[in-house]
Design brief:
The protein is α/β, with parallel strands linked by helices. It has 16 helices and 14 strands. The longest helix has 24 residues. The structure holds pyridoxal-5'-phosphate.
Amino acid sequence: MKHQYLKSQPNEKGYFGEYGGAFLPPQLIDEFERITEAYMKLRKSQEFISELRRIRKHYQGRPTPVYHAKRLSDAVGGAQIYFKREDLNHTGAHKLNHCMAEALLAKSMGKTKLIAETGAGQHGVALATACAYFGLECEIHMGEVDIEKEHPNVVRMKILGAKVVPATHGLKTLKEAVDSAFEAYLGQLDTAMYAIGSVVGPHPFPLMVRDFQSIVGIEAREQFEEITGELPDHVVACVGGGSNAMGIFSGFIDDPVELYAVEPLGKGTRLGDHAATLEYGKEGVLHGFKSILLQTENGEPAPVHSIASGLDYPGVGPEHAYLHDIGRVHVKGATDDETVDAFYAISQYEGIIPALESSHAIAYAMKLAKEVPYDTILVNLSGRGDKDIDYVVDTFGVRGWQPEV
Ligand SMILES: *Cc1c(COP(=O)(O)O)cnc(C)c1O
């Protein structure tokens, strides 16, 4: 039966198995109920669906292509690798898929402003873009460390008319940006909506963002079949919060296709050196939802590290925790070093500079390709790497990449 899984998860309270839900301060309970009610109505509205379809085609540039990375496949010497080119979305990543839809929802609820956190700045840029398109105010919270590292995206947000608020506490990265944005939201509930940047946060966001990203999987399934006459054997995506992964997974979840969530293994396995939440985390509640989290001994969110700012979050979407538990998705990792190698491999063998986030997925796909030489692998190339070039060159130098012989 088609879409059996998607219809069955989450339940009406927003639980995927035991994960998800909405753990909210009292001031936010009514507001999230209003958002849920508005969205449940809107998702069935023909007007909403056709407006979104129109925006995606004429403004975002969808459908994005599926591309056979033949030179890379030959060089790696194994399975045939394909990319779903989300880097070709307007603003350079998959994030606009949910931002345009979140803005449309906010507008239909009579809101005049969107508030959000951002890690790499990609969600901030995508949201600032959506706000400019719809004529909404935009307030983006960002860790001070990320502001420094992702300077071009900060400038983009400002040019697009957004206000950028630095998060100055703790490690000054993504987790602190979420704290800061939630606090600001509490004071502006009448006019603002929080536009969460991934399949995380309280219900209905994990469901909603999955719905908005599912276009990636719908297109990819059709396009892959058109090119090869079959479905891919393996589908690989990187996981920060998990939105690009859920987007592409949702197209294949009821099919006999192996799914792989690739987490950042960073510099090593010690707590603080990576952000491999599903691999090393345990159950807990953070930012309003229950999931698997990286925690310190006393239950605080752990410090995390990844060279990809969009992946360094100590939590993960509740649906990924569930899919991991039931064994539907394989959880894998890529280290910083393997990621930088993949970044240069794709640049020099395919002429595509990938985002460091996406380079994690590619790094794992290159390993997998050797293990399954007669198979096909579809990788979600979630974004382009222009934002990362200065950081990579300053930190790692300009490298070549040589296939192993
Ligand atoms: C933000 C981002 C990610 C991580 O977010 P998910 O919700 O896990 O998809 C991955 N790739 C790119 C290019 C991003 O900008």
